[in-house]
DNA sequence: AGATGTTCCTGGATGC
DNA sequence: TGCATCCAGGAACATC
């Protein structure tokens, strides 16, 4: 299940394997993979052909590769945008290798080298070509760095970005009338935090998932942020989390972080701080794992 | 308008 | 053994 650290691992892999290379052609093997691209699969493929892939960028769980016309000097105005969803993979490898069962899109390059493949079993992920526009959540960076894909202008900065504003995040939390976990999963408040890392951040902060956001103190909000940063940083250090074979990095190697999780998936196992068995609640049609002792349910809960 | 519920998808695990 | 059902979850979209 790719969340921010896993997507960053993929981004780094692409930086090494596709930067500076020119796409020759693209083949869409399943239209659902480009469903968000209104102009359709043929136009999608046409937009990639002949364009140079620059260094990939990331915000939260979204990944994009700026596309430059060959020989052009101006800043790129379009990008190939990717979201891996539940089971998406971006794989780089020998062009002649066997086709994966769930291969959705294949891009080959003019140099005849490694191809780029989008493989996605559950097809929650997608690719599209889009415009790059000025960033409203982040701060302007070096030339061309202040641009983000138009379809994700509403996605907030993620906690590992310099542009992330903790005070603005705290203010947004206090204005909301909802539970802290729902807020953490809302990509317009903070991006890159999914179900797994939300539970981990709350365990580290000692807060229950149903804690009303409007009652959070600045210190509590800071603990949640710090927890998210720590757990995602640790996951990044070991190459991402993997619970099954669905997540692999760009070269097909799995991550090794799952053994380090403190809450997620540990139902009935002892809390690593106090020994109380971890409990599982169903919330938002998802599992939430927490320690009943370290993360007591608030008297007034919000969902 | 903000909060909350629904939906999309596949295949491994589980139950009878 | 075989078939049916459950479960995983990001985020757009629908509804209250």
UniProtKB/TrEMBL annotation:
Q: Which residues form the signal peptide?
A: none
Q: Name one Pfam family in it.
A: Fapy_DNA_glyco
Instruction: Quickly give the catalysed reaction.
Output: 2'-deoxyribonucleotide-(2'-deoxyribose 5'-phosphate)-2'-deoxyribonucleotide-DNA = a 3'-end 2'-deoxyribonucleotide-(2,3-dehydro-2,3-deoxyribose 5'-phosphate)-DNA + a 5'-end 5'-phospho-2'-deoxyribonucleoside-DNA + H(+); Hydrolysis of DNA containing ring-opened 7-methylguanine residues, releasing 2,6-diamino-4-hydroxy-5-(N-methyl)formamidopyrimidine
Active-site residues, as the UniProt record annotates them: 2-3, 61, 286
Please report the stretch or stretches of sequence annotated as the Formamidopyrimidine-DNA glycosylase catalytic domain.
2-125
Q: Name one GO molecular function term.
A: oxidized purine nucleobase lesion DNA N-glycosylase activity
In terms of superkingdom, the source organism counts as: Bacteria
Q: Which keywords annotate this record?
A: DNA damage, DNA repair, DNA-binding, Glycosidase, Hydrolase, Lyase, Metal-binding, Multifunctional enzyme, Zinc, Zinc-finger
Q: Per UniProt, where does DNA bind?
A: 102, 122, 176
Annotated FPG-type domain residues: 262-296
| Family of this protein | Belongs to the FPG family.
User: How does the annotation summarize its subunit structure?
Assistant: Monomer.
Q: Report the function annotation for this chain.
A: Involved in base excision repair of DNA damaged by oxidation or by mutagenic agents. Acts as DNA glycosylase that recognizes and removes damaged bases. Has a preference for oxidized purines, such as 7,8-dihydro-8-oxoguanine (8-oxoG). Has AP (apurinic/apyrimidinic) lyase activity and introduces nicks in the DNA strand. Cleaves the DNA backbone by beta-delta elimination to generate a single-strand break at the site of the removed base with both 3'- and 5'-phosphates.
The name of this protein is Formamidopyrimidine-DNA glycosylase
The organism encoding this protein is: Actinomadura graeca
Upper classification of the source organism reads: Bacteria, Bacillati, Actinomycetota, Actinomycetes, Streptosporangiales
Q: What gene codes for this chain?
A: mutM
